[in-house]
Amino acid sequence: MDDQNGRERNDFRLSRRTEDYLEAIYCLSRERGYTRVKEIAKYLGVKPASVSEMLSKLASRGFVVYEKRLLVSLTPEGRMVAECVRERREILVKFLVTLGVPEKIAEEDACIMEHILHKETITQLKKFVKFVEESPADPMWLNHFKEYCESGVHPCLKVE
Amino acid sequence: MDDQNGRERNDFRLSRRTEDYLEAIYCLSRERGYTRVKEIAKYLGVKPASVSEMLSKLASRGFVVYEKRLLVSLTPEGRMVAECVRERREILVKFLVTLGVPEKIAEEDACIMEHILHKETITQLKKFVKFVEESPADPMWLNHFKEYCESGVHPCLKVE
DNA sequence: TATATAATTTAGGTATGCCTAATTGAGTGT
DNA sequence: ACACTCAATTAGGCATACCTAAATTATATA
């Protein structure tokens, strides 16, 4: 009934870890079209044995093409999932960076958030990022916000 | 090395579920100073048996006062943790609501985010919420953003 | 007080995911 | 062709966290 383990809050989503693996494979196989156990293990910071196990599961669910001991690649379905995950993540990074979170931390937190937030939340964050991007020139308020972050005082309040 | 299971990304933080339980107990025992297995189970949407197990762990770690079959309450330490978690959460809800996420979803996602984001991220979100709150009158850009959400066009671009 | 009912706990399982150690397999060099 | 090495897989375990069913214990009512 929870999402600590495999199943997510809503049943449409894959487990966080499943998404992580798909995204990793997606990134790693971008250029050549394939990747391998060792690379995935390094990318995700786990041991090859764990990757091996997970790949069997992913293959049986139709997300990757994988014959034991051979190279790994995504099926069209796996690619679709990975792209969604990736897109969510990129938006989140931009968003957090806009708000002044250091890039590196933004990356990490985005990676976590992408897996677990409702689509409504992602939608709003996406809109926000676009809103900022589409703003003509530098949005004044953003500068104000940055100033506020540094000084701790809202610029509009100290206009004397 | 991961955080799917017990241990979190950084070692200071308790597992997500541990925090959930502490927060639940905190909420439920606010008025009377104590709560009970059944209530916690209902609050978290798990079975009493699971709560029972978890309480033993929480007690052995010094977060709750709990003698089998009796009422449950937080130790000062448990309360401290719960309060931190709670504060993080409230900020997140405010933040998401500001960005137009429906209240109910904001609550849920906040509950998830609170457990896993870096403190730097929380800090920035907190600042952002404060920034908005301390803005004199209605911040223009927020209205613009709302308009943008509805129309899909940045108001500043269609000023003719 | 005795008994019925409600609350808890225990026992025994499940699933995810990760790890180590031991094996298996495949490609390379001699 | 054989041995070496490195990659990948299997086997056996661990921890978290949940569940169901069965056994307890408490409480409330007749």
List the main descriptive attributes of the protein structure presented here.
homodimer; 160 residues; mainly alpha; Arc Repressor Mutant, subunit A; Diphtheria Toxin Repressor, domain 2; two-stranded antiparallel sheet; 7 helices; 4% strand; disordered N terminus; DNA-binding
Question: How would you summarize the topology of this molecule?
Answer:
The structure is a homodimer of 160-residue chains.
Chain A lengths: L15 H13 L8 H8 L3 H13 L3 E3 L5 E3 L1 H23 L4 H14 L2 H16 L5 H12 L9
Antiparallel strand pairs in A: 1-2
Helix pairs in contact in A: 1-2, 1-4, 2-3, 4-5, 4-6
Chain A binds a DNA duplex (30 and 30 nucleotides) through helix 3.
What can you tell me about this protein's structure?
Two copies of one chain form a homodimer. Chain A is mostly helical and 160 residues long. Chain A has two domains: 16-79, Arc Repressor Mutant, subunit A (Orthogonal Bundle), CATH 1.10.10.10; 86-151, Diphtheria Toxin Repressor, domain 2 (Orthogonal Bundle). Chain A has helices at 16-28, 37-44, 48-60, 76-98, 103-116, 119-134, 140-151; strands at 64-66, 72-74. In chain A, strands 1-2 form a two-stranded antiparallel ribbon. In chain A, a hairpin with a 5-residue loop joins strand 1 and strand 2. In chain A, helix 4 (76-98) crosses helix 5 and helix 4 packs across helix 6 (119-134). The longest helix of chain A is centred in the middle third of the chain and has 23 residues, at 76-98. Chain A starts with 15 loop residues before the first helix and ends in a 9-residue tail after the last helix. Mean pLDDT of chain A is 87; it is low at 1-11. The A-B interface holds A 1-2, 4-5, 9, 16-17, 45-46, 96, 99-102, 105-106, 108-109, 112-113, 116-118, 120-121, 124-125, 127-128, 131, 134-136, 139-141, 144-145, 148-149, 154, 156-157 and B 1-2, 4, 9, 16-17, 45-46, 96, 99-102, 105-106, 108-109, 112-113, 116-118, 120-121, 124-125, 127-128, 130-131, 134-136, 139-141, 144-145, 148-149, 154, 156-157. Chain A binds a DNA duplex (30 and 30 nucleotides) through helix 3.
